[in-house]
Each structure stands twice: as C-alpha cells, then as structure tokens.
Fold:
Amino acid sequence: MSRAKTKTRRRIIGLSMVLLLAVLVVQTCVWIWSPAVPAEKAEYDFYIPSDAVFDSVVTALLRDSIIDSERGFRWVAKLKKYNTKVKAGRYRLLGGMSNNDLVNLLRSGGQTPVTVTFNNIDHVHELAGVVSGQLELDSAQLVDLLEDPIYLKSKGFSLEEVLGVFIPNTYEMYWNTDAEDFINRMVSEHNKFWNADRRAAAEAMGMSPNEVSALASIVERETVQPQEQKTVAGLYINRLMRGWKLQSDPTVIYALKRVNPDTVIRRVLTKDLSYDSPYNTYLYGGLPPGPIAAPSIRALEGVLHYERHNYMYMCASVDRTGYHEFASTLSGHNRNAARYRSWLNRQRLYR
Structure:
C-alpha cells in the first residue's frame, strides 16, 4: 500500500473516531442534561416504597410516563451510583427535569413531606385506618404497638391513656414514616402541647394531663357546638368538685362499644346505665381511666379554661338542634329531660 493511501486511511479512521466521539459526547449530554420528564408533568408526586429496588423504580417511572428514555436514565443512574442507593419516599417531580436533576433528587432522598390529618378518633383501630391511608405504614403494626402495654409503658403511657397521646391536627411528615416513628412523632407533639403553662393550669385544677384529656374527650362527645364546650366543661368540674358522679351518656356508649364496636347507639336506655365498666360514669365516681376519644385542642383548651357558673345538669335541647339546656337544680333539669324524652319518642328513636 502506498504511503499516500496509508495517510488517507489514517485520516479517515481519525475523522471517524472524532465523529464517533462527538456523537458519544452529544448523546451523553442529551442523556444527562436534556429534559427527561415531560413538560406536561408540571408537578408530579412519585412514590418509592420502602422495599423498592432500582429496577422497580425504573419500571414505575416508565409506567407513569415520567421518563422517555429508559437507557438514558439507567446510564445516568449508574454513573451516579443511584442504582445501588435507592431511597424510599414521596418525591415532587417537575416537568422538564433532566435525568441529572431526577437522579440527584432521588439519590439525595430529598422528599416532599405529606400532610397527615386525623380527627374524631374513637379508638386505635380507627386511628390506624385513617393514618395508613395517608402514610406507607402498616395499620396492623400500628395497632399492635398501641395495644402493647409494655411498649406503651416505655413511652410513658398506659393502655387507658393512649388516645390522649394523639392530638387531632394536621402534621407534616415523610410518606415512608413507619409505625414506630409515627408514634414517636405523636409523643413528641403531645409533650410539646403539654408545655409548662398547660401543665400548671391542669395542676391548678387538681388534674393530670391524662385527666384533662379524659374530661375533654367527654366534653367533645357531649356537644358538637364549640361555643358550648367551656360551659359543659364547667358543669363537669362543678360535679367533680362536689363529689357527684359525672353521669355522662357518652361514657356509657363508649363502655358498651368497647365490647361491640359495631353497636349503633342513638339513645342511651335505662338498662345501659347499670352496665358495669370503669368507664360508666353513672356507676363510678370521678373521671374514667382515660379518654373515650382523642380530644381536640379546642376541647382540651375548653377544659383548661372552663366557664365558671352554677350549672349541675344538662340535657339535649329540643328547640335548638345540637345545643343543650343547662340547669342548676334537679327540678329544672327534670323538666328539660322530660321534654327531650318526649321528643325522642315522637321521633321513634328507641335505640
């Protein structure tokens, strides 16, 4: 082969290599920097379960049409070693993100918190069901922990006190929060709520935080009207101070439903008042062992700042739905109660 042909061949090979290198550089830049997440995905919440592996993440990204190039994403992920460092959670993805942006976010574990809201909770099974619908945690595991007296004791609470730990509100936390971390967070929120000022207010009433929670839960089940809560709280404080039984229907309902949670009780019957349970405040004096529901902050504050008055009795109002008629004397209460019973009979509400 002549020297000229050899030089020409070398030039062609050299140019080919330069072109190939240029193509590889361009392709690499495209894989790394060009938009990978479609622009129409303006904001998209992508969830990675705790048991996820890299391949399942890729499958989910393709299934949800988040990436348009599996090869490009895999290449960038391997380059940044994300393929061996998958982190669970909820990630807020933005339209136009590059593979580099996407991998950096997922690799960093930079989750967007979720808001967890619960209220009107009557028992731990209900709490677990509501929370597990908002977090990844296992509801059965949460119930197991909340019904384990040894575990609860390690947290400073008893089985009877447990509902008072969970103060209804809206909280921010990570989606992959597990059952124990959720409980730890709620214990922390409980302790934050029961600061020095509130503990001092409870102590001035001769109550512990658990006793305030127990009374607040009764108050909240007695009235659906927030403006009545301080009045109702004051009534029960009056009865406690005189050594009278609270005689609260919601405590009887709670006692009955502890045996059969599916029981529907719209009217408390005379026979129910003799049901033997420490939660039945018609039989036992003082407060029940613990809350009959998870009391709201409003109800807790209603007890801590109860209204001073002379009322000793209350009865649902016939004229004002959702409200109560209050009385300082038994004769006044009997008149109110007779009107209400007559109304129940007319409505055919016998149970």
Summary: The first helix runs from residue 3 to 33. The beta strands are 43-48, 89-94, 114-118, 169-173, 313-316, 324-327. Residues 14-31 have pLDDT under 50 and may be disordered. Residues 149 and 162 are 10 Å apart (CA to CA).
